[in-house]
Amino acid sequence: MFEIAEPHPLSLNADPDILNDMDSDLHGVKRFYPADSLKSPRFTGPYTFARLPHSRELEVLDAVFVGVPFDGGVVFRPGARFGPSAVRQASLLLRLYNPYLKVKPFDVLNVADYGDVVVAPSSIEGTYQRISDEFNKILREDVSPIVCGGDHSITLPILREVSVKYGKIHVIHIDAHLDMVDSHFSQKYTHGTVFRRALEEDLIETEGSVHIGIRGSLFSERELSEALDLGFKVFTMTNVEEKGLEAICREIKAALSGKNTYLSLDIDACDPSCAPGTGTPEIGGFTPREILKLIHGLSGLNIVACDLVEVSPPYDHGEITAFLAANLIFEMLSLVALRSCAKK
Predict the structure, then answer these.
(1) How far is the C-alpha of 189 from the C-alpha of 155, rounded, in Å?
(2) What's the CATH number where 60 sits?
(3) Whole-structure pTM over 0.85, yes or no?
(4) Total number of domains constituting the chain
(5) Per residue in 318-329, pLDDT tens?
(6) Is residue 3 in some structural domain?
(7) Is residue 18 part of a domain?
(8) Is residue 222 in some structural domain?
(9) Is 338 in contact with 297 (CB distance < 8 Å)?
(10) Per-residue pLDDT tens for 257-266?
(11) Residue 159 in contact with residue 203, Cβ under 8 Å?
């Protein structure tokens, strides 16, 4: 079993002295806090992530939920442009306390729903520029972005801005696919080429970086060995079965302890039986319980930004993919909150 730390005092606060250090109004009520679902029904008001206020006041925020509704990089099933709106709606059921990581992230951090990047649906280059412009502003204010795509192609311009802020970044990439193809249909920028382009642009520190959850058929027998040759750790789902998640998480944490890390999670890492709403499903993936265990096992790492991508609502059933994604983003936010606790 994972060792779970005792609650950090900042994560459970009701102390007025602690509240004074937060962004609050004249009555000591935290400005950036989810609407109280014990007082107003979840189906009322505008849909924002976890019923947070919508704000772009970056100077008073610690973290933001950002939607990037773009799927112009897909090579099979589209629809991920509707991912952020579906995840926001599914997030209405989220509450305040994370009992697994023992943290109340909205008490530790000032968090708001930043809204969506205004993408250019017909232009991947135009969208990349808009993403870069927006994330440059966010990161310049020392705000941690929690991103919801959109397809996986959106990760590249975010990594560009993260590397401007932090230098070459370590990456934990949870996915069914490596996303290191050189091109699709002679196109260099797709959701399957993102980490090859990031390497070519010298954005990633490969030593310690990891792909986890890889499975399914490949384009060639060299695909896995090429990633290893470039310096990545690769854990296929067979490795996960053989080694166990606890051992893998210990290995990842030993390699990345104290290092600036970007977490990128493609929802197709999960089995299509529990996450059918995605563009490139692969059988044999993580169950919701397993993916939660994996995320919890990363607690204590210095995660500076993260994304969850490839939720495609047109292929979802009963909104189960969106509900899973919303909860995984809450877990990611909790990791960022724990990082903030460790620095105080």
Answers:
(1) 11
(2) 3.40.800.10
(3) yes
(4) 1
(5) 999 999 999 999
(6) no
(7) no
(8) yes
(9) no
(10) 999 999 999 9
(11) yes
